[in-house]
Structure prediction request, 348 residues.
Amino acid sequence: MTLTKNLYGITKDGKEVYSYIIRNKNGAYIELVSYGATLNKIVVPDKDGVFRDVLVGFDTMEGQEICTDSQGRTVGRVANRIAGKGVTIDGRNYQITKNVDGLFTLHGNHEYETAVWDSEILSDDSVKFSYFSPEGAEGFPGSVKNEVIFSFDDNNAVKIEYYAVPSEKCPLNLTNHAYFNLNGFDAGTVLGHYLKLYCDAYTPTDEKAIPTGEIRPVENTAFDFRNGKTIGQDVSVPDEQLIIGRGYDHNFQITGYDGTLRRFAESVGDISKIKMEAYTDLPGVQLYIGNFMNGTQTGKAGLPLEYRTGFCLETQYFPDAVNHSEFIQNIFSPDRPFKSTTVYLFTI
Prediction:
């Protein structure tokens, strides 16, 4: 394993941003960027031995700063959505910044994503990023000390370890918002990708994409990926939930969740035959297929980020769990910090 550090760029407000490349004995590598604690590249071989970058995103500092779709970013304090009612803890209500049309909160108003994280090389295969979220940031209670460790190994496994300690009771739900295209970032839509989800139910949403509280079985619906199918097979069926999300943009319940690391997904690029297996110790995963990318932003190699050219598997507690007692709760405290691990393993 080798690890190299380089100056990636300078932010508009003059902060230095660094990149870290971890390369294994086979020549595969990942690139990490301290702006947003971003997983920026995963470069692995395809069926012909050609190395492909399987992450949609940016390769310039300017692109990173204009990014609006969270590509590759570490997301917090709470990934995904919180309803406009905010968060109530021990009888006190906290009104969190409503950054979507003044109606609800998405991804903690992107606080973690737009911060330059402190960084530390731990070994030749891992880097730790740290960020302190100040008291009351975005309306959340208390402050939070955050750490995210990325590592890469000779088996082409990317491991992400999260650790966050709040100063008082606070909802936390950190994730990474990587957009995968296993045929390569420049290879067009992901609708032909094979996807299998070890998920027996999903959480339907209202018209604002906020979960209703129902946990609905996937059986006999377009949301059933248990036996594997292409992402595009059922995406256009006349399902109210697909109309609301403009396609898949939903939380799935991982079958057999018990807090231990378990496989929840497999996907294969239909052209490259690159296979990704995904693991988490959290109860849910958000499947999103880039329904809102519309070509207006310029990504890697100067190419526009087009509709459905990447898919996300965001490991998580269920969206808006704080407002649904029927969901597993994500309130943490100084004595009960947030800890989680996600792994993406790449083979042929």
Residues 61-66 form the longest helix (6 residues). The radius of gyration is 19 Å.
